Input
Amino acid sequence: MSSFLEVKNRVLSKRDRSSRGRIDQHAVTICSLINSRPEYYTTSSCSGRFHLYRGVGNKSDNADTKKSLGKGEGGFDRFRIHHGFIKDGEEARRYFNLETLEEDPEGGGDKIVEVDQYENLDVGEGDGEGEGEGEGEGEGECECEGDGEEEEEEEEEDSPQQPPPQSHPSIPSIPLTFNESSLIWLRYESFILHVCAISLPAADALMSAARRAGYKTVGVQSSGATSKVDGKVIVQILGDEFLETPLFSTPGYSEILAKMVNDRQRRNWDKIGRFEREVKGMVYEEGRGGRKHYDVVGDVAVVKDVEVGGGEGERVGVEIMESNSKIKVVAVQNDSLSGVQKRSNLTIVAGNHSRMGKDGGLVTTHQEFGIKCLVDLNRTFFTARMGPERIRLCNCVSRGENVLSLFSGVGLEGLMIAGRREISGMTFVEINPVAVNCLRRGLELLGRNKAVVVKGGGMAAKERVKILEGDALAILSDLSDEAFDRIIAPRPKEGGKDGDLSDGIAGAEFLKAMLPKLKERGEVHWYDFAADHEVEGGCERTKKGVEDVVGEMGWRTEWLHAGKAGSGSIAKRQFRVCVDFRVHKKD
Ligand SMILES: C[S@@+](CC[C@H](N)C(=O)[O-])C[C@H]1O[C@@H](n2cnc3c(N)ncnc32)[C@H](O)[C@@H]1O
Output
């Protein structure tokens, strides 16, 4: 029987088979929060959407109906899938204009992604995955497109537009001349999430959090009683907003419908926000012993606040090794990270002491969700506590993007994106030669990694990567303008300029140098350091600093996310935070 963690790693490292190749923007944070807890992993999600459709039933009926009627006839067709909201009357008239369905298939809704290099990608079909996890699991994160068997089953059960059985004696058929299957309908569906929990008590804890957030349709879909996998309880959380109506060309009707979907979408997103807060505050922890807390990077356990001499270090080291057979070395970190390049000062207290090289290097291979990287724990910056943040970043990336990973260190976030997302390019920038060397070796590992899920495997992913060694400011000045769809910038600390007592905008120089490299409507993940009260207040100081710089350049900031980056603090009541924003250069 596979362990829960093994299955979680396997499921979360699978290729996302949704058409956009990513989790919906408004579901990224809640999925990351859930996945950062050892007791859960998400198996599919949709943040809430509306679309137009023609036909009877739902998407899963399509193949069968078309088969029985012949190619091109009948079936169920969906148009203009939209995960956002409609801004104004002009957008409403465009979206609900039924005359232009053919020539304007997006209608202002989600971009229909067409990336040349992936034009033959068989999105939505099996790709040899799913080693016995079964029951709709591992279908990719977003169940918005092509996947999510569970949701399709749900649609069949609940779908209110299913025609009553014609033969039922008590329901007379009303003779009408129009053909229902030729009507175009609007359907709004709210948030849906499927989560696998390690146990029934863990499932209960999550369902209680969802109910406190206001979700009423919450339940266990499968108890795991017959599962081949250790602890497989599937929880479904379903938003309550819904709307379904046939469309007619009546003047003013578009604006009314737009208001209706917008109101539902806003209530739906508010509820997701409440759910995020509830999950953050969840106290449930599956049976943890009273052992000293330690971080695991590869086969090394790193423990803090332990005396190296006097036998304490050795005692703690042996206890950790006995409790976890995968750990080969235990090292104590008592100093804080030093220098711009954030080197540690580790002392091995248990395990193979010769692992510390003469050059002071302590090297290990670390793996997260199937993607590996090489880390020199003593001479580069790396923390396993950023694991949930790396997954969150990866989930923000859409198919076809060109990504810039600044201050990349050993590069796990970028390697994960290159190995799990169908991007067009990834450029790493890092100043520390030891980190760059680790990154080059990590890239070799990516090239050989059978777990890489993008088309063409590890070799194709590797070929899309470029590594630039040196100072970010100097390198940025050589890169072309408007080259990147997304920039990831976990900037280094800047002493007095950082934190709530700062006397300036830390990292402003980097921000000014990187923003011109972003495409119109490109997105940035900008990291800062903030006190606990600032995090609770929504990182306003960090946001203001960013808005000032973006404004100076004559552009507009659209906020997408603000919150703690990863788990744990960097010092007492001090946190690394990340704000995500989109830059509008033209409006
Ligand atoms: C906070 S670490 C982030 C590392 C990695 N992205 C992570 O999150 O694990 C910052 C990294 O920026 C690098 N760095 C510092 N100053 C830099 C500069 N001027 N140009 C490029 N890289 C720099 C450091 O060597 C370090 O690896």
The domain at 374-584 is CATH 3.40.50.150 (Rossmann fold).
